[in-house]
Amino acid sequence: MTPFARRVLARAAVAGIAAVLLASGCTTLEEKEREWTFRVVKEDAGWYGGMPAGVTDLYLPVSEAPGAQKIHAWWWPAADPAAPAVFYLHGVRWNLTGHVRRMEQLRDFGFSVFAIDYRGFGKSDGDLPSEQMTYEDAAAGWAWFAKQVPDAQRRFLYGHSLGGAVAIDLASRLANHPAGTPAQLRGLIVESTFTSLPDIAAELTWSWLPTRLLMAQCYDSIDKIRTVDAPVLFVHGTGDHYVPPKFAQALYDAAPPPKRLLLIENGSHNNSMWIGVQEYRAAVADFFALHGGNGKHAESSPRGLLAESSR
Questions:
Q1: Is 177 a catalytic residue?
Q2: Residue 234 bridge partners (DSSP)
Q3: Residue 172 resides in a domain
Q4: Which residue, 6, 53, 65, 225, is most buried by CB atoms nearer than 10 A?
Q5: pLDDT in tens, 164-177
Q6: DSSP, residue by residue, 247-301
Q7: What is the model's pTM?
Q8: How many domains does the chain have?
Q9: 238 located within any domain
Q10: Does the annotation mark 240 as catalytic?
Q11: Catalytic-role residue among 124, 130, 161, 272
């Protein structure tokens, strides 16, 4: 589908939200908005070839309440028990089965990988996700992850697309630890993500539509990123027609140091991790001082050239 066609469809979708609001009221609007936002495919992705060897299936309750709903998760430990571990948060539409290739790449970078399906996705309980539910599910996943990886210096968060917004929210919450206690997170990686959903809607639709008033699912990452106290690596493809790279630049500008922005030339919304695999691998290793990195966090230019952080 061409960028023009995607823009036309996006405009039609937001216009449809407005029509539903006028015809049916706010309750129906929110349900329809959630359907259009998450576009969940419950079935396995068509390219899924089966669970990789070494992956453990988990089902985790989202709260301690009796009969609490559960989320489905995968734990894929690296061969090295001392390897860093990453909590993987995916975006819309596809469940865990659609993300195996990116998880494999993170494993190749040297990480153990823990990943969840939000409620309404895949084998997790529930039917229709919401913004608040994704935050709750990420918190439940983190509770298990933190116990499995007790050393905070080995813990990383990764989020792709909408999952980047969920990861930023979780990182901002983890930053609220008592003064004098160590950080709960070694680093945050967000790829192909946005400042907020209303900002994306405004980018892809007509300027006269009051998107911020119409939308209940906001994912307001631009404000939350300012409170994150872990080093952040922002990655974005220059050819992303769904979420233009200017959104990564805006998040990078708002984030406190240490931080780095890596733009992958010709990378799309989904393929930056393998189109720019060597750049990506080097950025992760150097910025987070992994695998013989230089031990210093860095703040970089949009092309990823390392420079000393100002903090």
A1: no
A2: 190, 261
A3: yes
A4: 225
A5: 999 999 999 999 88
A6: HHHHHHHHSPSSEEEEEETT--SS-HHHHTHHHHHHHHHHHTT-SS--S--B---
A7: 0.86
A8: 1
A9: yes
A10: yes
A11: 161
